[in-house]
Write a structure and sequence with these properties.
elongated, single chain, mainly alpha, 4 helices, 0% strand
C-alpha cells in the first residue's frame, strides 16, 4: 500500500490531499485494541474480528482528524 501511494503521489494523481493524509498521518495509526485483545475478550476469529479491527482503526483516524494539525502527542500514546 505504501508503495502504491508513493507512486500515485509521484505521478501527480489527483486529488492529492487524501493520499498525503494517509502517507503523513493515517498509515501509522493503530486501533486502541489489538486482535489478541479482541480475541481474549471473546470476539471470534474470522470476518467479525476483521470488522471490529477496521471499525477501531476508523475511529482512530477520525480522532486524529479532529485533533488540531501539528498537535503533539506523547511518544507512547496511541491515536
Amino acid at each position: 500500500m505504501e508503495q502504491a501511494v508513493a507512486l500515485a503521489l509521484a505521478c501527480g494523481v489527483q486529488p492529492r490531499r487524501p493520499l498525503l493524509r494517509w502517507r503523513l498521518r493515517w498509515r501509522r495509526l493503530q486501533p486502541r485494541r489489538t486482535a489478541q485483545q479482541l480475541l481474549a475478550a471473546g470476539v471470534p476469529r474470522g470476518p467479525e474480528l476483521g470488522r471490529q479491527l477496521r471499525t477501531l482503526r476508523l475511529e482512530a483516524i477520525e480522532a486524529a482528524e479532529q485533533s488540531p494539525p501539528g498537535a503533539i502527542r506523547s511518544p507512547g500514546a496511541r491515536a
